[in-house]
Automatic annotation (TrEMBL):
Protein name: Tryptophan 7-halogenase
Protein's organism: Gilvimarinus xylanilyticus
Gene3D superfamilies tied to this protein: FAD/NAD(P)-binding domain (3.50.50.60)
InterPro entries in UniProt: FAD/NAD-bd_sf (IPR036188), Flavin-dep_Halogenase_NPB (IPR050816), Flavin_halogenase (IPR006905), Trp_halogen (IPR033856)
SUPFAM superfamilies with a match to the protein in the record: FAD/NAD(P)-binding domain
Binding site for L-tryptophan: E340
Source taxon at top rank: Bacteria
Length: 489
């Protein structure tokens, strides 16, 4: 990187987004960049966000944080998959593991052979062919084996407040300056409207070249000051409320997140070492806050440890995350509900892309590239989340009937139709979720394709049946030999 244009970087907000940004800038930007972070303890953070996807491991590696230290400091557990119960119909249950299913046979993707086997009577489930899913089912964990076709990714469940504190210590040890206080006013330059300074309640003025808005749902700089509009996706993701409550840790300790559909939304269960995170996500048009909270409390698997925390939100994003000299990272740039644990991933992507595109000559080019990238990330994640809602056959409430009948984004419609016709998973350009993730939801929620790759017929039905049976039993045996998750921790 040549000499950067922005030498004074000011971050507003000390939640997960703020401290992940500060830590990464301290490590990755040239030392001439001075980083200041302003946060207000009086305002506090959103206080949720505990499930991740495997990319967070690369973020920690980028920062040079050993896994052992990270896990101890954040009371983290391992996460191999998400279990979805009640999403296809009221009794359906499937795992979305961080892994592929089986390996190709005769050059044809595994799931086409899986379909052949089903057509001749096999009742195996797709997740019988993922070691990660089998381990998760048994509340077990083992590091991924180094054998072709058997590997998988893993992520963590973590205490988000502890993670932010951990990253704060990391960043402050690398010269990030923290200022406590509430930003009361933001001043802009009269000639071009760029942000000039923050004025704190105390009267302190903090000037900067580049401002990072990590102020959460308030979107203090990007939304309120610069007026970048919010595009709502509520018509596709109708949940707009959540209530969260912690409870005692679980025994045995699951190595997966659970997502259980309810009549007007869904409930999460996130196992940590020292507690369990629980929450109910719901549409305020279908259920009251009190009813949602009562429903969540009835479903708790262990004694409560905190009072319920109610959160309001709207699914959608700011049409561009970088405007003038301000980049929004985290909830200030948008929010897609936590169904596939993608928010921390989106924070990570924004940080990595900002560092990659960090302007040293022409800010305009970097800004355009960044905005195009982030817009694409948001829309790809959106489509995958909408798939879960749309592909339901529950018919037991207005909420689920609406989701099944709603008009979905054309990009998603096209993808579903192609799969229904031919079992082909269309490859999006560089979206987060790859073929195995789409297969998990398609099959898990009961979308059976009408046709599949005719080349699968070149492998005899007998060989397919033997191969599938052999693989499922091999994975089951491996999973049964693996240690319990709690033991590994
Ligand atoms: P916040 O945590 O809200 O932080 C905002 C910061 O800005 C605070 O420090 C606040 O004090 C500061 N601030 C605001 N205004 C001012 C001001 N005027 N002056 C000074 N400081 C100010 N993500 C996942 O990846 N996995 C999950 O499982 C997950 N679950 C979620 C469940 C729910 C119900 C919700 C709503 C979100 C969930 N998320 C999840 C998203 C996740 O919580 C956020 O992405 C993450 O916490 C980052 O939040 P943030 O830092 O952007 O905002």
């Amino acid at each position: 990187m040549a000499s950067p244009l922005a030498k004074k970087i000011v971050i507003v907000g000390g939640g997960t987004a703020g401290w992940m940004s500060a830590a990464a800038f301290a490590r990755l930007l040239p030392s001439e960049c001075k980083v200041t972070l302003v946060e207000s303890q009086q305002i506090g953070t959103v206080g949720v966000g505990e499930a991740t996807i495997p990319h967070i491991r690369y973020f920690n590696q980028l920062l040079g944080i050993p896994e052992r230290d990270f896990m101890r400091e954040t009371q983290a557990t391992y996460k191999l998959a998400i279990e979805f119960t009640g999403w296809g119909n009221a009794s359906s249950r499937y795992m979305h593991p961080f892994s592929a299913f089986g390996a190709d046979l005769g050059g044809v993707d595994f799931h086409h052979h899986f379909l052949t086997a089903r057509a001749i009577g096999s009742n195996a489930a797709l997740d019988d062919f993922s070691l990660a899913a089998q381990l998760a089912r048994g509340n077990r964990f083992a590091p991924p084996p180094d054998e072709p076709g058997l590997g998988y990714g893993y992520a963590y469940h973590l205490d988000a407040t502890a993670y932010a504190s951990f990253l704060r210590r990391y960043a402050e040890a690398r010269r990030v300056v923290r200022r406590e206080g509430k930003v009361e006013r933001v001043t802009t330059a009269p000639n071009d409207g760029r942000i000039a300074a923050l004025v704190l309640e105390s009267g302190e003025v903090i000037e900067g070249d580049l401002f990072i808005d990590c102020s959460g749902f308030r979107s203090l700089l990007l939304g309120k000051t610069l007026g970048v509009s919010f595009e709502s996706w509520r018509q596709w993701l109708p949940c707009d409320r959540a209530v969260a409550q912690a409870s005692e840790p679980l025994t045995p300790l699951p190595s997966y997140t659970r997502s259980r559909a309810t009549a007007s939304g869904w409930q999460w269960r996130i196992p940590l070492q020292h507690r369990t995170g629980n929450g109910q996500v719901y549409s305020s048009e279908c259920i009251s806050d009190d009813e949602a909270c009562a429903q969540l409390q009835r479903a708790l698997n262990s004694a409560p440890l905190s009072d319920p925390n109610f959160i309001q939100f709207e699914a959608g994003y700011r049409t561009h995350s970088w405007e003038k000299n301000c980049v929004a990272i985290g909830l200030s740039s948008g929010f897609l509900e936590p169904l596939e644990s993608t928010s921390i991933y989106l924070i990570q992507m924004a940080i990595v892309k900002l560092v990659e595109f960090f302007p040293d000559a022409d800010e305009h080019i970097s800004r355009e590239a960044f905005n195009r990238w982030m817009g694409m990330e948001y829309r790809r994640v959106r489509d995958f989340l909408v798939l879960h809602y749309h592909l339901n056959r529950r018919q037991d409430s207005d909420f689920w009937r609406y989701c099944a009948d709603m008009n979905i984004p054309a990009s998603l419609q096209e993808k579903i139709e192609l799969f229904r016709e031919s079992a082909v998973v269309q490859h999006y350009d560089q979206g987060l979720f790859a073929q195995p993730s789409w297969l998990a939801v398609y099959f898990g929620q009961g979308l059976v394709p009408l046709g599949w790759d005719s080349r699968a017929a070149s492998v005899s039905a007998d060989k397919v049946a033997r191969t599938l049976h052999g693989l499922a039993s091999q994975l089951q045996t491996m999973a049964e030999r693996a240690p319990a998750h709690a033991e590994v921790l």
